[in-house]
Amino acid sequence: MGDDVTIDAKILKARRDFSRFTIQHQIKKDTETVAAIITVDIAWMSAITRKLAVLPEEESKLLMHGPFAENFQWED
Fold first, then answer.
1. What is the mean pLDDT of the chain?
2. Domain count for the chain
């Protein structure tokens, strides 16, 4: 216990409307030792319809700024 931990997150792939995207988290202890790599697939869901939906424009604009992984790819 007591280790310093950092988490880096980068977008690996995404649909152009960001209705679905994948983020990879790299967890490091002591800023150098990789303790874990976690990859998460995310889909935006409407709380009203309870169906998958397009990300609201404001949030989509935020994601357009990344950070993107070196091997990022758009899914069409």
1. 92
2. 1
